[in-house]
Each structure stands twice: as C-alpha cells, then as structure tokens.
Write a structure and sequence with these properties.
This protein is mainly α and 309 residues long. It is built from 10 helices and no strands.
Length: 309
Amino acid sequence: MLIYKQWNRIYDQLLSERVKVKAERLILVIAIASFIIHLLLIVLVDAALIHIPNSGGLLENPIAAIYTPFSFILVYEVYLLLFYLPKSISTYISKQYEIITLIIIRRLFKDLSNLSLSSDWFKIKYDLQFTYDLIAAVLLFFLIYQFYKQGKINYRTGSSEQQISAGITKFITLKKVLAASLVPVLIFVAVYSFVNWSISIVDADEGNAVSFENINNIFFEQFFTILIIADVILLLVSFFYTDQFHKVIRNSGFVISTILIRLSFSVSGLLNTLLIVAAIVFGLLILLIHNRFEADSELTVPLKKSEQE
C-alpha cells in the first residue's frame, strides 16, 4: 500500500490535471516562439546571411515554418496520451491515432514547400505523396471520429459491481505506475533523438545527407516502439482482471494496430500511408465488434465459466 501511495504521488506530480494545464500553456508558448524563430531562419537563409546544408526544403518557404510549432503540438499530444492511459483504454488508443494523423498533417506542411504545380502532377514523387497524405488526413479524421463515438459506448456486463470495482481499481493503479514510468523514458528518448539529429545537421557531410529526409521519423519511430512494449504489458496484466474473450481480442487488436503504425515508419510513399490507414481501420473494426459483444449480455460470459459449462 505504501508503494502504491508513493506512485500515486509521483503520478500526481507528473500527470495530474494541474500539471496538464501548465504543460499545455508552456507548449503553446514554445510553439509560437519556435514558429517565429523558424521564420527568422528562413529570412536569414534567403538573404544568404547564413548557410544550413541539407535543409530538405524546411528553410526555403515560409509555409514550411508551420512544421516546427506542429512538432511541439505533437509533443503535447504524447503527454496527453500518457495522461489518458490510466483513464480509458479507448481514449488512450485514440490518442495514438491522433498523433499519427498529426504527423501526416505536419508532413503536409513540409511537402507544400516542395510542390510542383504542373500538368505532370501524378508523375512527380512529392506531388503524389502530398495527394496521398491529403486524402489520408481526411479519411483518418473521419475514422478517429467514429472511434471516439464507439469508445463512449458502455454496456453492463454480467459481473457484479463489486467485482468490477475491485478489478478496475487495481488495474488503474497499475496503469498509473506504467504512465508515470514512461514520462522520464520518453523525455530521455526525445532529448537524445533531438540532440543526435542536431549534431548530424551541424556536422553535415555526404553520409548525413538524409538527415532532413527522415525528419518525420525523429523520436516517433522510437516512441511507437516503446508504446508497443507498454501495450503488451497492459495486455498481459489485463488477464489478471478479465478473461472475457471479446475484451482479450479487443486489447490484442489494439496492440496489432500499434504495431502496424510502427511499421509505417519503416517504409515511405503510398505504402506508408496505407499502413497508417489500415492500422486505424483495424482498430475501429475491433472496437465495433467488441461493442456488439458487449451489447449482447449472453455473449459476455467469462471464458472460464463457458469452459466449465
């Protein structure tokens, strides 16, 4: 009990409502400042006062400056994901989907500066990727809306309220421990990724020519790898509190969805976009079928009871 109280204290210091409000204000200030700094760098590069090699188009067009504040907004979304982890599994997963969608939106701002407005639109690599991302952003927005609607649906199960309350309380405590533990891990990964990338830019040579090309993957490739580990831990721990088939499949399906998102960082072009869309469609279908099981009380009998019968 003492250990749980200590972890609750740590959780309140890192992921409480009060800290969330402060983090939101801080991120907004940093985002605005970073936008202004990015614009200034573009002006300096355009005036030939400074030279930054391998800029990847981020320092050639003022529109690309929106890329930087969006990066800090994504950092806040990562914080929100950890904030909601102990509260709701569906909200936690939906935050993963929001993050990958915002990564696509951020990529759109970057690709806007590389567009070639010509009759050969569908033959130019950057224009094609922009088209894929534009369609995907709208589709993912709709899918996340549907996921939120399904995530808010609750049904009564056959278990007693006392059993449900005891199980949920323990599971929430464990999720708080996991969320609080992930905060320093993700801060370390974020700082390490940014420093490592910054060094590669300063010390640019032919071997680092792709440093800006893979900028969309910085931090988030490692972030989703950590999320897979966290999701697997949640899946395994959930077996202590429920053995209902539809909940096991739902939790397992969410892990597969996260893995598909992680795999999308390993590829580019249309395949990257298709993997992201497939991940969210799969997660939504899993939740839809889970809710149908919940709606039919006869189907929500625990596995162990059905085995006894």
